[in-house]
Amino acid sequence: MIPYSHQHIDEADIEAVIKVLKSDWLTQGPNIAAFEKSLAAYCDTQYAVVVPNGTAALHLAYMAAGLAEGDEIITSANTFVATANMAIACGAKPVLCDIRADTYNIDETKIEALISERTKAIVPVHFGGHPCEMEAIWAIAKKHSLLVIEDACHALGAQYKGKKIGGLSDMALFSFHPVKPITTGEGGAILTNNKQYYDMMLKLRTHGIVKDPEKQKAIGGWYYEMENLGYNYRITDIQCALGYSQLSKLDAFHARREEIARYYFDKLKNVPGVIPPTLLEHVKTSWHLFPIMVKDASRRKEVFAFLQSQGIGVQVHYIPVYKQPYYQRLGYDTGAFPNTEQYYNSCISLPIYPDLTNQQIDFVVEQLSRATS
Ligand SMILES: *Cc1c(COP(=O)(O)O)cnc(C)c1O
Hints:
The protein folds into two domains: 2-247, Type I PLP-dependent aspartate aminotransferase-like (Major domain) (Aspartate Aminotransferase, domain 2, 3-Layer(aba) Sandwich); 250-372, Aspartate Aminotransferase, domain 1 (Alpha-Beta Complex), CATH 3.90.1150.10. 38% of the residues lie in helices and 16% in strands. The chain has helices at 11-21, 30-42, 54-64, 82-89, 134-143, 195-205, 213-219, 237-247, 250-268, 300-309, 325-329, 338-346, 358-372; strands spanning 2-3, 47-51, 72-76, 93-97, 119-123, 147-151, 159-160, 163-164, 171-175, 188-192, 209-210, 225-226, 274-275, 283-284, 290-294, 312-313, 347-350. Helix 2 packs parallel to helix 8, helix 3 (54-64) crosses helix 4 (82-89) and helix 9 runs parallel beside helix 13 (358-372). It is globular. The structure holds pyridoxal-5'-phosphate. Pyridoxal-5'-phosphate (PLP) binds next to helix 3 and helix 4.
């Protein structure tokens, strides 16, 4: 089976993990800060907080932003459910926005109409690693005094107008699941240049507990106080050592992903039944996904099944959030998202990951050509 995505783990990664296993610190040790520092440096950002997964990263970012009962966020209808779910976990309401027909990202021209007195943040999702139109989004946020929190789970290493995704908005968050640009098994991180958000996320990551040296001096060395309702959102040193080792290879991963994308573009010229993805001039995508659209949407199901039967692990990203039974019960309206509907009805994500060979790509395109002709 050729999967749609796959991690690349080498001997250096394995050595790094073994080294931690032989050390005193499996968690709450020195590898946490080392990984955070390297992530922050890679993204030209001041602070990074690492957590057990991207969903926890969304939850902590929303909590640090003060998202609560009665608030709303605006995010893309074309995302993984966690982006919306964690707003609900904070008591807030996710308001979904339609996507652009070219990049499948949130349509920045449709955001303003969704803003209400309750809107607190815009949460753009860099779909497939292709950055959203951030300047337009920042302008809307500024005009309406909203925060911008980027769900950059696909986009570690992507660039918007020459700048790395990470420190460009109030916060940006990443996932290190094995299908994402780098992996820690499970993992995630929030990046920010805001010290207040940073301090709050560190606190909430460990149960909302603080240890004040002054109070410890007065009361005793054991003393701590719980100031906020937090969680155990700590990630292990084992995972962070893997992440640190993986990050050193990220640029090489990207270089190969870019080669793969160019190879696909070239080969797909001879496959008239599909629409390849659009790449805008002023961004550098991380090529997390290579989403194509089947021109004759009525054949998507059959094309998908054929590719799977040939051992090609294609996927569909994403079933729109509003279609999920949970969101249907909350009254989300399926009719409000024409571009999302059209995209969802015809999309297929082709395999793309650093170890994919040109020979495998040839096979994928050949089968795709057979299935769509
Ligand atoms: C993967 C992903 C998440 C969740 O990350 P996990 O690490 O799986 O919890 C959230 N949003 C998007 C867009 C993702 O792709």
